[in-house]
Amino acid sequence: MSFGLRLAVIDADDMVREGRLLLLQSQSDLQVVFETADPRGALEILGDYLIDVILVESRIPGLTMEKYLEQLSQALDDAGSGAQVIAMANFVSMADELAWLKAGAAGVVSHELGATALLRLTRVLGAGDIAIERSRIDMLLAEVEGPAALHGALAISLKQADPSQTAVLKALLTGSSDAQIAKDLGLTKYRVGKFLDSIKLANGFRTRTQLAIELLGFGAF
């Protein structure tokens, strides 16, 4: 029997976490396989579970959310997990959103957007799609950081990319899934995914969003 997407929920507030669990468990295509009130403890054991999406609340005792996301990303990499992370908070500033995305969150959601936004983001990430549009990344970069220089490793990767690989990267910035990119460019989904995984690995990125932010932030396309 298939239970759909496998989720983990990390939230130090017991009451809020229980309410979120009720929401997620009411969805027939979502299954919560791990939940905890101990964010630090989760770093040690999350790798033991097969998880598609991790929902993390910004209440992290003794740590900023940005630092925790960096540690969580490292723990997932060490465990060989491809789980995608959603960072959540009551209010999310543009600076926080960009910092959390760069630290490893594949998506960020404010509670003021409601349950529908959280469920939609969970399903989008579970399907392997990029969760943020190019226009949003452009806005975040313009408001928070401004222009910067392309770092060496990614510059080398872009220089070595063949025309089809360059087309894949440009398509990535439209928010298309691997399947849609493959269809549009006449490539196999496997080839698209393998190339994106290789360029993420070579440049220290866990998520497609991190790669997109880097490309747009430095004016690569």
TrEMBL record:
InterPro entries: CheY-like_superfamily, Sig_transdc_resp-reg_receiver, WalR-like. GO terms for biological process: phosphorelay signal transduction system. GO terms for molecular function: DNA binding. Gene3D superfamilies: 3.40.50.2300. Keywords: DNA-binding, Transcription, Transcription regulation. Signal peptide: none annotated. Residues 6-126 form the Response regulatory domain. Coiled coil: none annotated. This is Unannotated protein.
